[in-house]
Design goal:
By secondary structure, the chain is of the alpha/beta class. 39% of the residues lie in helices and 14% in strands. It folds into 5 domains: 182 residues, GAF domain (Beta-Lactamase, 2-Layer Sandwich), CATH 3.30.450.40; 87 residues, Beta-Lactamase, CATH 3.30.450; 199 residues, Rossmann fold (3-Layer(aba) Sandwich); 68 residues, Helicase, Ruva Protein, domain 3; 92 residues, no CATH class. Strands 11-13-14-17-12-18 form a 6-stranded mixed beta sheet. Strands 2-1-5-4-3 form a 5-stranded antiparallel beta sheet, with helices on both faces.
Length: 674
């Protein structure tokens, strides 16, 4: 009443200066433009029965969703309060209500009946009508109602938007003046957000992927988590308002790759129970989980069983193990983090994944050949069967036969009385992974060839053969072609197992190091929320030679996680061995550049030392003569790796080492690489 007295005494604008609320001030101006005065009576405008039924039918999903989300709050928090929860449509017509209207006078009860309009032009400034006008949440205190007749209550309301960001309704809590307005306003916002989230889920959940994210991994189940929906092509087709706020831009219509820095393909197969992270607003790390379509879109290369995943298996393999089946292995698309060479290998593997074409996975030690083999198996139609992994280099030569092919009782001295099935028969129906097959003894190679040709195996000490059906995948760190040339590997077995060779790049070659580090950190972090890597450390990672490849990176990250005590890994959390490798690499390249630049200068004046074809001419009587070329150890250690990592690009090798192309050619000839 005091505010109305001020209005009468000092005039309209003076009174509005006391509200300190531009929203209320603008609403009072609108009320005046509608021809209302504070003494006007509320106008009860109700839909007729037919129009009301139509409005209710149109809003059926909104009413059901709101009731589902509101009732838990009301029953747990508001049930003993003198309050009403109202749901109105986008025009301000009441659709439903929950609670006790004890604060409403007998004369005003018709205002709270379903079908009644609460637009400002009928009822002055009020939470429902003003929220519709502004499109934002609003609190209207007792004396802030324009009509004196409505000043027996306070109200808080917030608009409800559907997945298309179209206003579909307003949620309101009205009560007497004894509930704290800040508390009620917060509750309205939470309930509204819950309704909006549920509308998005109901519209898109069945056939699309969802990304739920927040500033903490502990709050991913909060109503205030960001929520976006993306389709199989990676296009964001819906997002809640919280998602736009966290990322700092309107998300609908953008690419999920652009927003998160993570490929849509990777997100579409990411395990639902595994937390990931990405950067939202500047320096704002967001933690997320993925929800996949309830009606699954199965990729061409995958089977339903391939969509259950756990964390990346980074443990070193034992001599032989029954590797996890598809319920604990990653499928091929999950290994694609953006590197071109890895993408090529993955794409090639996917093309033959459901055929029985043998695969050879070639790469340096520690690049993840076994993880790749597990992904091939998990993606294939054999995913429900066993993957039996055998490290040929780890089994003593005298035991390889019995371990692979099995044996019967009494087959040899020390044989188990029960005999042994052997790894090949264990893999029947599934996949046999032979790691480091290049180290397999020649006599064992002959027996393996026979098994592959006849599709049956005869255990040691037996004359009985057992049919077997398995996919064979081999891995090696060496060139099997070179091993064949040196008679270390049978050429007939080579052509049997080498249906398709897949080359995995070394870690120092990969262009997705940042993404790989993030992936491994999430896998290694016990609490799901992984720390960030400082820019300084990432620069060190990119400059490191990584002789142990991913296996070494995993150990470096494990140490860093153990030593870190915050949210960011810095150089102080890296081991001394890490820096030693880094220093040795820098020193080696520097020495190559210094010594061979001198050699380059000498070569300019050495025309007399070469014939017309450019071949070296050496005097056998010279004190510098040696039957074998003397190759600096730094070249022996470094040039082969550079040659393979650059795919024989002489110009690139010369640029890296700082010497001439002629010097590179000379050293390559000496090493037998060119």
């Amino acid at each position: 009443m005091q505010r109305f007295r001020t209005l009468k005494k000092e005039g309209w604008m003076s009174d509005m200066a006391h509200t300190h609320d531009e929203v209320i001030q603008a609403s009072w101006h609108r009320c005046r433009s509608f021809g209302l005065t504070p003494k006007s009576s509320p106008e009860i405008i109700q839909l007729n029965r037919g129009d009301w039924q139509d409005a209710k039918a149109r809003a059926n999903d909104l009413i059901a969703t709101t009731q589902e989300q509101v009732l838990p709050y009301y029953e747990n928090i508001l049930v003993n309060s003198n309050s009403l929860v109202l749901l109105a449509d986008h025009e301000g017509t009441l659709l439903s209500q929950w609670g006790r209207p004890g604060f409403v006078g007998q004369m005003d009860k018709h205002l709270f009946e379903n079908g009644t309009s609460w637009q400002e032009k009928y009822n002055g400034t009020n939470a429902v009508g003003t929220a519709i006008q502004t499109g934002e949440s609003v609190v209207v205190g007792r004396d802030e109602h324009f009509l004196i007749a409505n000043r027996y209550m306070t109200a808080s309301a917030a608009p409800i938007y559907n997945s298309d960001r179209r206003l579909v309704g307003v949620l309101n809590i009205s009560s007497d003046a004894y509930l704290p307005t800040s508390h009620v306003n917060g509750m309205v916002k939470v309930m509204t957000q819950a309704v909006e989230n549920q509308l998005i889920i109901a519209t898109y959940r069945q056939h699309n992927h969802m990304l739920i994210f927040n500033t903490s991994s502990d709050n991913l189940d909060s109503q205030w988590a960001g929520m976006l929906v993306f389709n199989d092509e990676g296009m964001i087709i819906a997002a809640n308002r919280r998602a736009d706020l966290l990322v700092g831009q309107a998300l609908r219509g953008l690419s999920i790759d652009l927003v998160t820095g993570i490929s849509a393909l990777h997100l579409s197969v990411h395990p639902e129970n595994q937390t990931l992270s990405f950067i939202g607003l500047p320096k704002y790390r967001l933690f997320a989980t993925v929800k996949h379509p309830q009606v699954a879109h199965i990729p061409r290369v995958a089977t339903p069983a391939a969509f259950s995943h756990t964390k990346l298996n980074v443990a070193a393999s034992s001599p032989a193990s029954k590797a996890p089946t598809s319920t604990s292995a990653r499928i091929l698309p999950m290994l694609d983090l953006g590197d071109g060479k890895m993408h090529r290998a993955i794409r090639q593997a996917q093309s033959v994944v459901n055929s029985d074409i043998p695969l050879v996975i070639q790469g340096e030690t520690g690049v993840g050949k076994e993880v790749f083999a597990q992904a091939v198996h998990a993606t294939s139609e054999r995913a429900s069967e066993k993957l039996v992994a055998v490290n040929c280099a780890a089994i003593p030569a005298e035991l390889v036969e019995s371990e692979l092919f099995g044996y019967v009782k009494g087959a040899f001295t020390g044989a188990s009385a029960k005999g042994s099935l052997g790894y090949i028969r264990q893999a029947d129906g599934g996949t046999l992974f032979l790691d480091e097959i290049g180290d397999m003894p020649l006599h064992v190679q002959a027996r393996l060839l026979r098994v592959l040709q006849e599709k049956s195996v005869t255990p040691l000490g037996s004359t009985d053969s057992y049919p077997v059906d398995f996919r064979i995948v081999c891995a090696t760190h060496q060139s099997l072609r070179d091993a064949v040339a040196s008679k270390q590997f049978r050429d007939d077995l080579y052509y049997r197992v080498n249906g398709l060779t897949l080359f995995l790049p070394s870690l120092r070659e990969r262009t997705d190091l940042r993404e790989l580090v993030a992936e491994l950190l999430m896998s290694l972090s016990e609490q799901g929320a992984s720390p960030m890597i400082s820019d300084d450390v990432m620069s060190l990672f990119q400059a490191h030679p990584w002789p142990g490849n991913i296996r070494q990176l995993v150990n470096v990250l494990r140490v860093a996680l153990a030593l870190s005590d915050g949210d960011v890994i810095t150089r102080h959390h890296l081991s001394d061995d890490f820096f030693l490798d880094l220093q040795l690499n820098e020193r080696t390249l520097a020495e190559i550049a210094t010594i061979d630049k001198a050699e380059q200068k000498a070569e300019i004046h050495a025309d007399e030392s070469t014939d017309s074809l450019g071949n070296d001419v050496v005097n056998p009587l010279s004190s510098q003569y040696s039957p074998q070329p003397i190759i600096p150890s730094r070249w022996q250690d470094t040039l082969p790796a550079l040659f393979h990592s650059t795919e024989g690009n002489i110009s690139k090798i010369a640029q890296i080492t700082g010497v001439s192309r002629n010097t590179v050619y000379k050293r390559l000839r000496q090493l037998g690489l060119k």
